[in-house]
Structure formats: structure tokens, C-alpha cells
Amino acid sequence: MPEELSAGCARPAGGPVGENIDASMEKNKDVRKEEMKMIQVGKKAPDFTAPGYHEGKFVNVKLSDYLGKWVVLCFYPGDFTFV
Amino acid sequence: MSIDTKFVHKMWNDQELSKMVEGGIPFPMLSDAGGKVGTLYGIYDEDAGVETRGRFIIDPDGIVQAYEVLTPPVGRNVSEALRQIQGYQMVRESKGTEAAPSGWRPGKMTLKPGVDLVGKVWTVWKTEMAFD
To answer: Hey, is the C-beta of A66 within 8 angstroms of any chain B C-beta?
Structure first.
């Protein structure tokens, strides 16, 4: 039966059920965790491109196109969340 | 930037955010499906599959001057982000000859680091100045 969830700011994620699958996922997680690293202040911001929505149009944005300007890059958990 | 698609960004802007900000969101709302950019910046929460509240100030040379990362349930202080940008802009305009002491905001005194200031900050900067 579906279980009712309260609507919070974090997005609960689903996942596979069963021991074998869990064990192999845990292994992959360890490998990926090593790659995850915080960037450093005073160092170059990693360049990227990303699709998006801007004032009525779908756009593609490249960070390095903003060289010469001040940029605030904000990440957030998700659209239609509360904070 | 979030893991939502550009289509969901459009709906959120049109249905809700445009009712908070006249004319809608003036800057690009970017999509990071899979969290690749968030991972690059070290703020992607792999377990939840979403970005945490990371905020990066990048200067005109593409250098990260500041960042702040919060977990989802507490929102940011925009005034503090603006104050930091104003501080870095002031330092940049002075070509690094001036610095913004704790509590600095535009109009407040700056410090001019140099031989004469060593051990003498207490004569020009008072603890109350750290607060608004």
C-alpha cells in the first residue's frame, strides 16, 4: 500500500529493494565519493554549460561567456520546494 | 541551478515565482539533470539526488572568491551575499590596496594593509564595527 509522506524541503529518493543490489550500490558509492571534492576559493571556477529557461525562452548558458562580469551561481534542492 | 528540467523551471517561474517577483525571474534558471555540475562544485547530494544550497561568487576573471553551502531547510541571506560582492568589488577597485574588515559594508571604513598597520588595527577598528 502506498505510504503517505509529508511534504518537506528535502526530496526523498527511492531505490532498489534487496540485499544483493544494495551491496553492489554501496561499492559504487565508495568509488564515486572519492571523486566528490569541494572546490577552493581563490581558484578558477570550473567551466560548464547548462540548458535553462530565461525570460520566456529556452537557452543554453556557458559560464565562461560571463568572463568580465560578476557571477552569482546558486544551487537549490528543487523547484516548488518551500524555502 | 537545480536538477529540474527547463520545462519545470518555466512552470515554476510562470505559476509561482512571477507572483513574487514582477516580470518573473530576471536571470537564467539552469538545469543540472544528473547533478554533474553540482558534483563539479562539490555540493551535489548523491543520496538524495538533489543539489544542496550552494552559492558561489565568481569574479570577472572567473575566480571563485566566496561560497556558502546550506542544507535544504534554511534559506539564504541575500543581503549578506550582496555585502560580500560589494566587499570584493571594493577590494578589486583598489587593486588590492584596501581590505574590508569584519562587519564592513559600503560607507564603512576600510583597512589599508601595510607595515604601519601591523599591531595597530585596534587603533582604527573597534569591535562594535563587526556588527550592524
So the answer is: yes
Answer whether residue B23 is part of any domain. Answer: yes
Among all residues of chain B, which has the CA nearest to that of A38?
A: B42
Q: Based on the structure, what is the number of domains in chain B?
A: 1
Q: Please answer yes or no on whether B61 and A73 come within 8 Å at the CB atom.
A: no
- Asked if residues A64 and B87 have their Cβ atoms less than 8 Å apart, the reply is no
| Residue B40 forms part of a structural domain | yes
Overall pTM surpassing 0.90 (yes/no): no
* CA B127 to centroid of chain Cα atoms: 24
ipTM: 0.93
What tens digit of pLDDT does each residue of B21-40 get? 999 999 999 999 999 999 99
Residue B25 lies in a domain: yes
